[in-house]
Amino acid sequence: MKTEILTILRENEGYVSGQQLCDKLNVSRTAVWKVIEQLKKEGYKIEAVRNKGYHLTESPDVMSQAEIESRLETEWAGNPVIYMDETDSTNIQAKKLGEAGGKHGTLVVSDRQTAGKGRRGRGWESPSGASIYMSILLRPEFLPDKAPMLTLVMALAVAEAVQEVTGEAAGIKWPNDIVLNKKKICGILTEMSAEIDYINHVVIGVGINVNTESFPEEIQKTATSLAIETGKKWKRPDLAAAVMRYFENYYNMFAEAQDLKPLQERYNRLLVNKDREIQVLEPGHEFGGTALGINETGELIVRKADGSIEEIYAGEVSVRGIYGYV
Amino acid sequence: MKTEILTILRENEGYVSGQQLCDKLNVSRTAVWKVIEQLKKEGYKIEAVRNKGYHLTESPDVMSQAEIESRLETEWAGNPVIYMDETDSTNIQAKKLGEAGGKHGTLVVSDRQTAGKGRRGRGWESPSGASIYMSILLRPEFLPDKAPMLTLVMALAVAEAVQEVTGEAAGIKWPNDIVLNKKKICGILTEMSAEIDYINHVVIGVGINVNTESFPEEIQKTATSLAIETGKKWKRPDLAAAVMRYFENYYNMFAEAQDLKPLQERYNRLLVNKDREIQVLEPGHEFGGTALGINETGELIVRKADGSIEEIYAGEVSVRGIYGYV
Questions:
Q1: What is the complex's ipTM, to 2 decimals?
Q2: Is A89 helix (H, G, I), strand (E, B) or coil?
Q3: B282 part of contact set with chain A, CB < 8 Å
Q4: How close is the nearest chain B Cα to the Cα of A22, in Å?
Q5: Among the partner residues A143, A200, A314, nearest to B315 by beta-carbon distance
Q6: Which element (helix H / strand E) includes A63?
Q7: What is the tens place of the pLDDT at every residue in A235-280?
Q8: Which CATH number covers residue A244?
Q9: Which domain holds residue B140?
Q10: Which CATH number covers residue A293?
Q11: Interchain contact, B200 vs A189, CB within 8 Å
Q12: How far is B163 from chain A (nearest CA, A)?
């Protein structure tokens, strides 16, 4: 019921009477009052004025299930939300749900991860209270070889959501890092369970540094948070809901086209490597060139010094800007 | 110790003295005697002759850990063997071990599956006492897009092992069904957990109908067993060990080449579709042609009526012989 009351309070600019809430939710005045008191304890500022009713004036930065659900404006992305104060890793939990038959769009969110995962099993710093750790479970109907492109779909969704919420010019470092002022603010980890010609499920994990105040020394040069870059705190549930809104829309476009064509222009507009010099590091083969953007399947188009074009696949190479991380 | 005693008895054509066993295993005569008695109870026929020692004359058809391990001649394939009398599905168990850090080559074997899986989540009949249900856990170092070829590597290994053990002309129906007299005797289910450019693990499940006496009516026309086709019973551990021996060898060749080139000729020799008329059923597109064999990446090369060549990928189509299942 918390989700519903928060949703109704949010939808109304002015006051909502206790009676209205009772009628809509078909519960007693006492039940409504109890939830309002609970919400206040959790940090919500709710004005209660006699003969007018309740008015939500401020929400806390808590990643609770009710808070996230009441902010979601999606059909399937984030339906349901599974929230845990602490877990090993949201990707691990989402994969378990995937094995157990969990539904397309299920979103696992946690305030803290004890075994956060980066790529290739590397760790991902996951303290509580400051970051978004969430993983969405997907059951695509396309073939497994299309799945790697989903990570670019999510990168685009996160970059757009960060821009919308903060007004900052977040960009994408190909293929799927989100950067602000040349430092990384978000990592994406896409994992797939598949048969040869059939996807069991895909899990896309998103870790966004929102209000983190400092980073371990070894990553300070490459990692940052929205708070560090903007000098102010941001509401995580807001941003998480915006990511889901963009992702649902872009996923639908991608799934219909079965390639990145409908998203290619948008992605390339946000691509920080675009028209920049990069180094392509292939095993046993290294070359420089200018990144021109992605093609329809998400490969990076690179023009080499001699004018020839190479399209490079994320699996085979890593790309480094000539100057620093980007 | 059971495994070791069985292994030693098998390695010796004649008699092995109790003292030899004690020395090799560094245990007491009583301990050896106890294991011998246990083995007899399990159905092993072991002659014990005074002043000569023990001689193994016959092994039962039991899929026990000791029996399988004592027959294995591999380095890593089947090391270790995890045996369970009954489980939901060996693929499910192997995937769990994969998530938990299990070792490359781990082989999960069960005498009975309560939730045996075919492709795309379909069921797989798994009664006890007659079939091989086993799944090998792999941690390949190549890129995820190479993994689908592994299913052809296993198909080849099973077909060769069946030929070696039974002397029957088992063949392969592209891409990975093993057939005998135009009916299916083995199904292979390959599942992968991967990041974009990194394989977490691959599980290849193998279900072989060995001594099955009859099949449910709905699959009688397409399924058979070694016992039905040959009129006699076969020892499952023998066959399982032979599959592992072929698989380890072929996997090593594949992993080095990173394609099927070194196995292509062998595979095509066993391909029952070769030089036969087939129907290719693509969504919204159907055509006939002659199957010529697989190419280096496992695609089926088809010559159409007009002489043109198409190479078809297993993910996109199904292939049907003009006459019946094959």
A1: 0.79
A2: coil
A3: no
A4: 45
A5: A143
A6: none
A7: 999 999 999 999 999 999 999 999 999 999 999 999 999 999 988 8
A8: 3.30.930.10
A9: 65-270
A10: 2.30.30.100
A11: no
A12: 26
